[in-house]
TrEMBL record:
Protein name, as recorded: Major facilitator superfamily (MFS) profile domain-containing protein
One Gene Ontology cellular component annotation held by this UniProt entry: plasma membrane
Membrane-spanning segments: 29-54, 66-88, 100-117, 123-144, 156-178, 184-206, 273-295, 310-334, 341-360, 448-474, 486-507, 519-537
Native source organism of the sequence: Vigna mungo (Black gram)
Record-level Gene Ontology MF annotations: myo-inositol:proton symporter activity
InterPro entries tied to this protein: MFS_dom (IPR020846), MFS_sugar_transport-like (IPR005828), MFS_trans_sf (IPR036259), Myo-inositol_Transporter (IPR050814), Sugar/inositol_transpt (IPR003663), Sugar_transporter_CS (IPR005829)
Taxonomic lineage: Eukaryota, Viridiplantae, Streptophyta, Embryophyta, Tracheophyta
Keywords, in A-Z order: Membrane, Symport, Transmembrane, Transmembrane helix, Transport
Transport among keywords: yes
Domain of life of the organism encoding this protein: Eukaryota
Length: 579
């Protein structure tokens, strides 16, 4: 069906690779537009590492958790607005111009962040970047989908997803590269302006989406582009199919009432599709994925690894596993099925969250004690420890929780032995490190730290191939054609809003109830997600889009999730049924 997203399988990917010499124009088009996905992924990953050094430069950020969350989440707030207005800009001005506008906003935001002299300016830059990311997250895959050959459309759209995870991975590499450079985080955030500017230049030499041109009556331009995309023996068929599809869409829009939320909810197929599509997008965020991606270096430090550089290096592993998982999903999603794959994914996420919960509980309850002798060795004792009525019972976690201005200097002999509770500032940190001790201000030394890394790795390995991919695939195929744009927009916005809520609350939760209790909350949410998928999400594997719509009409609850419903391919007389 014109405008749909063809599924990517192994043969499609082989054919996609052959485009590099058969039709390099198509591959250049997909890669150029896919830079938007790369920017999306890069921003997600880069802020996690940059935040470590922003806290060192701006002490108010280090001491105020809400400021850290604001720096991360204001980009998400911008993305919500960008995604909301992006659909209108795409339809009004075209996909190509939308991508260029997104790049321009991203470029401005990167420059503002790199030159920010205070947290407020940095947050303004994050909003600009978010606006660009939100627009690009819609425009890039749409442009690739509408300007790609049908046979490899799914593979080329999936390329955008690979570039997202690739951007995340590269952001950690760049973070590591600039850890010893003057300005550290300014380079990390500012370097993103280069790919944004590169995409603007590349898009200047690429055409507009042929489907959009047809809808605007510019048929000759669209035909010329299609002749570059398709081989000569297929081009006329594709032109006729596109023309008929656009004409039918225009006739349906003219004959139908104006679409409203009430009308959407009264249409059974749309309502059931929204239940599944929005639910998957919301649970994708609320099982905690972006706490791992945004705060993975911080989580690594909470697990007892003090060095910023070590935290970034270990976080690079999670980004690499995320990229690997997105590749694996391409091979398994059509073999295993969407529903089974996402359920297996969620079960694995529960196991990994249990590991993280136990590890952080043990880290918190078995941290090194504070020694009066070790503390008195320095001249700047933490004020809370000085006035404490029971200093002999203080351990590292007590010290760090007493005040944001307190830090822990580990024992020189063994970091797991009793150390010193001191005022947290640059002078104290330097004095501690000069004696070849390790300085902790966000987590405590622990012999369980490596288990936390294993838990993070397991989380990514299980999440990425299933919950990382399936929500987007299901949303691309579960809605009737006429409602696909508005329903997809609603689902995408719900994803960004959920992302914002989780990112804005994670650090506050860890501070208020502890890291282990926060991960325990994610466990219960993941169990709720499993129940939700079993009840509300149908299996769409192997079904044409028309039959997906009919299956939603007749589907009843099926707890045997490993089976495709026997009536899923039955075609009732009516395609829409209202309640």
């Amino acid at each position: 069906m014109e405008g749909g997203v063809a599924e990517a399988d192994v043969s499609a990917f082989r054919e996609c690779l052959s485009l590099s010499w058969k039709n390099p124009f198509v591959l250049r088009l997909a890669l150029s537009a896919g830079i938007g996905g790369f920017l999306f992924g890069y921003d997600t990953g880069v802020i996690s590492g940059a935040l470590l050094y922003i806290r060192d430069d701006f002490k108010e950020v280090d001491t105020k958790t809400w400021l850290q969350e604001a720096i991360v989440s204001m980009a998400l707030a911008g993305a919500i607005i960008g995604a909301s207005v992006g659909g209108w800009i795409n339809d009004r001005f075209g996909r190509k111009k939308s991508i260029v506008v997104a790049d321009t906003l991203f470029f401005i935001g990167s420059v503002v962040m790199a030159t920010a002299m205070n947290p407020a300016t940095l947050i303004v830059g994050r909003v600009f970047v978010g606006l660009g990311v939100g627009m690009a997250s819609m425009a890039s895959p749409l442009y690739i989908s509408e300007a790609s050959p049908t046979r490899v459309r799914g593979a080329l759209v999936s390329l955008n997803g690979l570039l997202i995870t690739g951007g995340q991975f590269l952001s950690y590499v760049i973070n590591l590269a600039f850890t010893t450079a003057p300005g550290t985080w300014r380079w990390m955030l500012g370097v993103a302006a280069i790919p944004a500017l590169t995409q603007v230049i590349l898009m200047a030499f690429l055409p507009e989406s042929p489907r959009w041109l047809f809808r605007k009556g510019r048929e000759e331009e669209a035909k010329e582009i299609l002749r570059k995309i398709y081989p000569p023996q297929h081009v006329e068929d594709e032109i006729n199919a596109l023309k008929e599809s656009v004409e039918m869409e225009v006739r349906e829009a003219a004959a139908s009432d104006k679409v409203s939320i009430v009308k959407l909810l009264k249409t059974k197929t749309v309502r059931r599709g929204l239940y599944a599509g929005m639910g998957l997008q919301i649970f994708q965020q609320f099982v905690g994925i972006n706490t791992v991606m945004y705060y993975s270096p911080t989580i690594v430090q909470l697990a007892g690894f003090a060095s910023n550089r070590v935290a970034l290096l270990l976080s690079l592993v999670t980004a690499g596993l995320n990229a690997l998982g997105s590749i694996l999903s391409i091979y398994f999603i059509d073999k295993t099925g969407r529903r089974k794959l996402v359920l297996l994914s969620l079960c694995g996420v529960v196991v990994s969250l249990v590991v993280l919960t136990v590890v952080f509980h043990e880290t918190t309850t078995h941290s090194p004690m504070v020694s009066t002798i070790e503390t008195s060795h320095f001249n700047n004792t933490c004020p809370g420890y000085t006035i404490a009525t029971n200093p002999s019972q203080w351990d590292c976690m007590t010290c760090l929780k007493a005040s944001p201005q307190c830090g822990f200097c580990a024992s020189r002999a063994n970091k797991l032995l009793a150390g010193a509770c001191l005022i947290s500032n640059e002078r104290t940190e330097d004095e501690c490190k000069k004696e070849e001790r390790q300085w902790y201000s966000r987590g405590c030394p622990s012999k369980y730290g490596w288990l936390a890394l294993i838990g993070l790795a397991l989380y990514i390995i299980f999440f990425s191939p299933g919950m990382g991919t399936v929500p987007w695939v299901v949303n691309s195929e579960i809605y009737p054609l006429r409602y696909r744009g508005i329903c997809g927009g609603i689902a995408s916005t719900s994803n960004w809003v959920s992302n914002l809520i989780v990112a804005q609350s994670f650090l506050s939760l860890t501070q208020a109830i502890g890291t282990s209790s926060t991960f325990m909350i994610f466990i219960f949410i993941t169990l709720a997600a499993i129940i939700f998928v079993i009840i509300f999400v149908p299996e769409t594997k192997g079904l044409p889009i028309e039959q997906v719509e009919n299956m939603l009409l007749t589907r009843s609850l099926n707890f045997k999730f490993w089976q495709t419903s026997s009536h899923s391919t039955e075609i009732p007389d009516q395609k829409h049924q209202s309640v």
